[in-house]
């Protein structure tokens, strides 16, 4: 299984968000090539500003394995995590984070810090299916502005 395969699954979650008029970000947590959890943005549906795709997926993964850390798992998310989600990923001790599109407006990198917000043992991979992930976000906001 490849990063592209799992990012496609995250994109399916993002499409669920899109169809529910949520900002289209999706995430999956994978361990040993098995999907532990899925999530998509539900901030409008739940009236909860913390109900980001990453948080939904992490909470589900913790519950699924019965542990509060994910040192052998990878999170695939369609858009660069925000500061809040980066903090949650730090505390999860997840081994790897993979995202598609960068988010200079709302992603953690907007802080322009040379210090990574992720756990020191967390590996980062960016730009996986970037074009597809960015296109979904652009389409959503174009439709919102009509």
Automatic annotation (TrEMBL):
Binding positions (Zn(2+)): 52, 82, 85
Reaction(s) catalysed (UniProt annotation): adenosine(34) in tRNA + H2O + H(+) = inosine(34) in tRNA + NH4(+)
EC number from the UniProt entry: 3.5.4.33
Record-linked InterPro entries: APOBEC/CMP_deaminase_Zn-bd, CMP_dCMP_dom, Cytidine_deaminase-like, tRNA_aden_deaminase
Keyword line: Hydrolase, Metal-binding, tRNA processing, Zinc
Domain CMP/dCMP-type deaminase: 1-111
Annotated Gene3D superfamilies: Cytidine Deaminase, domain 2
Active-site residues annotated for this sequence: 54
Cofactor annotation: Zn(2+)
Keyword tRNA processing included in the entry's annotation: yes
A Pfam family annotated for this UniProt entry: dCMP_cyt_deam_1
Free-text comment on the cofactor: Binds 1 zinc ion per subunit.
Taxonomy, superkingdom: Bacteria
Assembly with partners or alone: Homodimer.
Similarity comment: family membership: Belongs to the cytidine and deoxycytidylate deaminase family. ADAT2 subfamily.
Protein's job: Catalyzes the deamination of adenosine to inosine at the wobble position 34 of tRNA(Arg2).
Name listed for the protein in its UniProt record: tRNA-specific adenosine deaminase
Source species taxonomy: Bacteria, Pseudomonadati, Bacteroidota, Chitinophagia, Chitinophagales
């Amino acid at each position: 299984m490849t990063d592209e395969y799992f990012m496609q699954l995250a994109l399916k979650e993002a499409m669920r968000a899109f169809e529910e008029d949520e900002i289209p970000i999706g995430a999956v947590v994978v361990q040993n090539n098995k999907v532990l959890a899925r999530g998509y943005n539900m901030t409008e549906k739940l009236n909860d500003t913390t109900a980001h795709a990453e948080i939904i997926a992490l909470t589900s993964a913790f519950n699924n394995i019965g542990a509060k850390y994910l040192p052998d798992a990878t999170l695939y998310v369609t858009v660069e995590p925000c500061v809040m989600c980066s903090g949650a990923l730090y505390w999860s001790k997840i081994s790897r984070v993979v995202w598609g599109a960068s988010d200079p407006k709302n992603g953690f990198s907007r802080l322009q810090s040379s210090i990574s917000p992720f756990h020191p043992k967390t590996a980062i991979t960016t730009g996986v299916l970037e074009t597809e992930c960015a296109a979904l976000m652009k389409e959503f906001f174009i439709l919102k502005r009509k």
